[in-house]
Amino acid sequence: MKLKQYLLYLPFIFILALPTLTYAQAAGTPANGGLRFKVELGPAVSSSPVSGRLLIFMTLSTEAMESVQPSFFELDKVWIAATEIRNLAPGKAIEINADDLAYPGPFSTAPTGDYQIMALLDVDHSFPYSEMGPGDLRSIVVGALGLKPAETPPLKLVLTKRVEDEHPIADTESIKLVTFQSPALSAFWGRPIMMRAGVLLPASYASSGKARYPVVYRIHGFGGSHEGAWRSGPGLLKKMTDGALPEMINVYLDGSCPMGHHEFADSANNGPWGQALTKEFIPYLERKFRMDGLPRGRLLTGHSSGGWSTLWLQVNYPDVFGGTWSTSPDPVDFRSFSGADLTKLPPENFYNGPGGKPRNIFRFKGRDIFSWYQFAHFARVVGEYGGQIESFEAVFSPRGEDGRPMPLFDRDTGSIDPFVQKAWDRYDISRLLVANWKSLGPKLRGKLHLVVGTADNFHLEEAVYILRDTLKGLGSDATFEIIEGRDHMDLFQGDLNDRLVRDMYKVARPAAKSKRP
Fold first, then answer.
1. Across residues 461-474, what is the average pLDDT?
2. Residue 298: what are its φ and ψ, rounded to 5°?
């Protein structure tokens, strides 16, 4: 059933029903001819002042919507304006000029039309990573018919709703939340830093006495967290309980941090996450649960940013882990960083390829959806940190004089900073393998397994191809499964996940005839 539509007729104000979008108490057109909003904090939603990043979403539609948010598949269909606010008191309003910081352009350039509009206060600056989330404040979605952005006086929106957590996590018989204060990370930040994981225990764990289990360490992609244990864990548990898959402990690690996905790499900006995992958190988990505690019983798997993380961990800590099954990893060879070659000097332009053609960063079913230029400008509006590009810079870049990760490229022109590009070399997994193959080769025998689709939405297959050829030239036995026609999102259709689990178990229990320990 469709929601009731509430529309405001402009320029002649005719209120059809409440709630509606109304003129604020101001007359005339803004001096700059742009569209302004007055956003008020509703007293019922907060009794104290609030701060955060205020976002205005506006999209062409006559049909009322429950919420308005941008989509990867239609990135330019939602207009976004943003500003930072501090200590907005209940009942008070702040005015935002929707031309100052906006995507895909100043709101005054939007065409006349019928719009749905919503305000969102991102209280913890997590929107660039995980979009609207628990604790954020928002207005209802209101409609405006015949809106003329270049001529309309200020419009009023009221933050009246607090976003609730629709999937709160809690321990179950088989899924446990584990938190651990890392000494290394706490020392780096000068305050307590917690590591988190969701631990999925096989059904037989409670009754199996002193039996120990192999462990699969799972790392999510960008935008995820350890909460995947509660979402996908029950399905995996059922398969283990039914005997369809061998019983193993599955640890869903948390790769999220304020600056995005730390990828479990030691970095100048995020801190020593790889060290903290291998030297602190895993030993803690092995004391807490009946885990094998042996390299062959520590297996890695992850998708996207998690795919890069697991490959990075296996290459950098070859004596700790028994193998990685990395799927659709972030760029593993910087000769193709989703299209850009970050090994060339002088550097290429990040935005444009040969002949000035814009580099595509997201495609779907053979159609280019948006470019690196579009994506970078979208990211600049929704948040200053925590987005995908900013997340890469937090991991790979040196820290600048202002205390922030140094940008790889100029957001306006796409010009790459050669100093930063050179600093990224140490995170080029392919380069690392070539430089250290004499010592790494024997330790990685039988441990590297990559899977990617030929139509990856982010062009990640390009770097995998280069790494495959590089390792073949080194005499590596690494396996590469290239699935024709599959992309970043449908890679796991079919039995891929089950096959990977069985392959992991063969490493941990090479002589086992039973699927149970």
1. 98
2. -115, 100
Fold of 175-333+429-508: Rossmann fold (3.40.50)
Stretch 236-255: mean pLDDT: 97
pLDDT at 513 over 80: no
pLDDT value at position 33?
A: 60
Q: Where are the alpha helices (DSSP H) in 169-298?
A: 183-189, 228-231, 233-241, 273-276, 282-288
Q: Residue 392: name the closest of 465, 312, 455, 481 by CA.
A: 312
Could you write out the DSSP letters of every residue in 364-387? ETTEEEEEHHHHHHHHHHH-SSSS
CATH class of domain segment(s) 22-162: mainly beta
pLDDT at 16 over 90: no
**Between the CA of residue 172 and those of 179, 196, 201, 228, what are the distances in Å?**
16, 16, 10, 14
- Helix axes 388-396 and 372-382, enclosed angle (nearest 10): 90
Provide the 3-class DSSP secondary structure of residue 119: strand
Ordered by start, the domain boundaries in the chain are 22-162, 175-333+429-508, 346-425
**Dist CA 227 CA 218 (whole Å):** 11
Q: What angle do CA 376, 379, 381 make, to 5 degrees?
A: 120
pLDDT tens for each residue of 147-195: 999 888 889 999 999 999 888 899 999 999 999 999 999 999 999 999 9
Closest by CA to 460, choosing from 363, 348, 354, is 363
- Two tokens, residue 438: 């004499």
Grade residue 139 by pLDDT with cuts at 50, 70 and 90: very high
β partners of residue 15:
8
Dihedral (Cα; 413, 419, 420, 423), 10-degree rounding: 160
**Beta bridge partners of residue 97, listed in sequence order:** 36
CA 64 to CA 142: how far, in whole Å? 7
What is the DSSP secondary-structure string of 156-171? Answer: EEEE-EE---SS----
pLDDT of 4 strictly over 50: no
Structure confidence at residue 15 (pLDDT): 26
Q: How far apart are CA 112 and CA 90, in angstroms?
A: 33
- Residue by residue, DSSP assigns 57-77 as EEEE-SS--S-----GGGGGG
Cα-Cα end-to-end distance for the chain: 51
The H-or-E segment that residue 400 falls in is none
pLDDT at 8: 28
Where residue 26 falls among pLDDT bands split at 50, 70, 90? very low
**Whole-number pLDDT of residue 488:** 97
